[in-house]
Design brief:
about 200 residues, alpha/beta, seven-stranded mixed beta sheet, 6 helices, 7 strands
Amino acid sequence: MKRRLILASASPRRIEMFRKNGIEAEICPSNLQERLPEGISPEQTVLYLSLGKALDVERRFLEKNPLPEERVFILGADTVVFTNRILGKPKDEEEAFEMLKSLCGGEHRVLTGVSIVEAGTVNRKSFFESTKVRTKSYSDEDIRRYIATGEPMDKAGAYAIQGGFSAYIDGFDGDYDNVIGLPWKMVREELEKMGFILQN
């Protein structure tokens, strides 16, 4: 039976990661309103949001295709940066500055939650990856120059480890792909366990 993969995200980093690994995923961004229950942990946050995104896209898919003739896998993901609080994407340059200032010369965690749902079935899995990242010290002027590139504005924690901010990374422990936005090794393993066989 044919298998399809739908990515419930428009993230260029996640799309590129699938392409780099030989998968042309269908792109169907979630419309989920990201409201969180009170008092949940960073780990619960990324699991809750990733599952909500996958289920939102599954619901819309099944409305149009109530009896799919193929196996359709939907993947939702959510990434946050955690210091002593959760940092998502900055809403403006001022918030980006505050986030980057708070990360300066310290250690933080990047968490990505992933949920995979096979449409119309109970075949589903949620998991997360956590990577510790250490940053060098940098000046307020360094932060302003980086913000002026526009790169921080759609990134959790207001930075891209694979982009211009790489100069300020002192090291990391764990999965590099996770910091970009998708823990590929874990995603591949779970997709194959669920029945979506990758070619490479």
